[in-house]
Amino acid sequence: MATTTKKTSANGTSTPAPAAPQPGNRIVTLDEFIIRSEKDFEYATGELTGLLRDIGVAAKIINREVNKAGLVNIIGVADGSDNASGDTQQKLDVYANDKLIECLQNSGECCAIASEENEDIIQVASVNNKASNYVVLFDPLDGSSNIDVNVSVGTIFAIYRRKSDPSGPATREDFLQPGTRQVAAGYVLYGTSTILVYTTGHGVNGFTLDPSIGEFCLSHRNMRIPDNGQFYAVNQGYYSKFDLEMRRYIDHCSDQNYGLRYIGSMVSDIHRILIQGGIFLYPSTRKYPKGKLRLLYECNPLSMVIEQAGGKSLTTQLKRILDMEPRELHQRCTIAIGSPRMVDELNAFVERYSALPL
Ligand code: AHM
Ligand code: MG
Fold it and tell me: Which of 165, 303, 292, 306 is nearest to 223 (CA)?
C-alpha cells in the first residue's frame, strides 16, 4: 500500500505529501507489458508483439458489441448459416470473426488466418511488402449459444510460426502443427469484467479491461492453477452416453462431494478452473464420438495456458493434447484439463476402467 509522509507548515497544520509512485502499484497496460516481454521471444522482430496487440484491439471492439448485445439487433442466429463445423452461427459469431480478421489483415503482421467459423484458411496480403512469419488461429466467440441469455462468452486464439517459405503463400501445413509449436496462446473472457489471459511460453498473465481508459491493465501476474480443486465441470446431462470410465470418475467426484460447475462456455469454465482449481471434461458421446471441441481453435490454446500455469491437459484416451498431430483444420478431440492432481486422478480411472487399449 502507498504510504504518505506529512509536511508541517509554518502555522502548524499538516498537509499530506504526494505519495511516491510505487513500482508495484503502477498501472501496466497490455501494450507496455507485451513490448517489455519482447526480449523473451526466440525471434524478437516485433511481429509477435504486433499480433498480440492486434488481438487486444479486436477484443476491445468485440467487447463493446457483446456488452450492448441486448440493445441492438445483434443477438440471435445469423441468417441461414452454419459454420465450418456444422454448428449454428450466431450474429455475434459473425461479427467477432469479421473484426478479428479485419484487425489482423490491416496490420499484415500474420500471413494467414484460420477460424473456427471459416471452412478454409484465409491468406493475408503483406503490408509494405513485409513477409510475415506467423499464422493465427481463433475461435472468435466461444460459447456463443449463451449470448442471448447474458452468459459469459470468450475469444480463444493461438499463434504459430509458419513452416512454409515466407516468400510464398501460407499452406494448411502451417496450421496443422502440434500444440507444442504454439508460440503464443490465450483467451479473452467477456464476463462480469473483461479479461485477456495469454502466454508466450513464459508463464501466464491476465489483463483486465479498464473501461474508463479503454486499456487492458495487468491484474493477474504469473497465474498459477491450484494443484487440486473441489469442482468438476462436465455436461452431466450426457452421463448415460459417456464411457464406463467417465461415468465411474463422475460418480467418484460426486462421492467426494466435489461441486459441479458447468457454464457451457468453455472459456468461462476454464477461467474459473485456472483461478479456483478443478477439472473440465468433454469426453466422447454418441453424437460426438471424437469429442465436440476443436483441437486447433479451443483445446490447444487453452491447454497451453493451463500447462503454463502448472496444470495438465489430456484427451480422455490419455494422450497429451499438445502432442496431438492435427490432420484437419476442424478436427475435434476429447479433453480432460485442469488441476494436475485431478487430471492424475481421472487418469487412474481411465487406466482402470477403459475397455479400449490405451
Ligand atoms: P462453440 O464454439 O460452438 O460455442 O461450442 C463450444 C462450446 C464450449 O464453449 C462449451 O464447453 C461446449 O460447447 C458446450 O457444449 P455442450 O452444450 O454440448 O455441453
Ligand atoms: Mg468454441
Answer: 306
Q: Out of 81, 118, 142, give the residue to mutate to test ligand 1, the one with the largest number of ligand atoms within 8 Å of its CB.
A: 142
CB 174 within 8 A of CB 135: yes
Nearest-angstrom CA–CA distance, 249 and 269: 19
Cα 263 to ligand 1 centre (Å): 9
Evaluate whether 242 touches 283 at the Cβ level (below 8 Å): yes
Residues 213-224: tens digit of each pLDDT: 999 999 999 999
Site of grid cell 502548524? 12
- Which pTM value belongs to this model? 0.89
Give a yes or no: residue 321 inside a domain. Answer: yes
Q: What is the CATH number of the domain that holds 25?
A: 3.30.540.10
Average pLDDT by consecutive 10-residue portion of the chain (358 residues)? 36 39 72 83 73 95 85 60 63 92 93 96 87 94 86 96 93 98 97 95 96 95 97 97 96 97 97 98 94 98 98 97 98 98 97 81
Residue 105, SS3? helix
Give residue 77 CA to ligand 2 midpoint distance, Å: 15
Domain around 102: 20-220
Single out the residue of 147, 139, 151 nearest to residue 302, CA to CA: 139
Residue 119 is a catalytic residue = no
In 3D, which of 276, 323, 273, 278 has the Cα closest to residue 300? 323
171-192 pLDDT, tens per residue?
999 999 999 999 999 999 998 8
Pair 343, 215 in one domain: no
Task: Tell me which residue of 181, 175, 194 sits closest to 63, measured CA to CA.
Answer: 194
Q: Does ligand 1 lie within 6 Å of residue 84's CB atom? A: no
Is 269 an active-site residue? no
Residue in 106, 185, 187 with CA at minimum distance from that of residue 141 = 187
204 and 247 belong to one structural domain: no
Same domain assignment for residues 281 and 194 = no
3-state secondary structure of 82: strand
Tell which atom from ligand 1 comes closest to the C-alpha of 144: 4
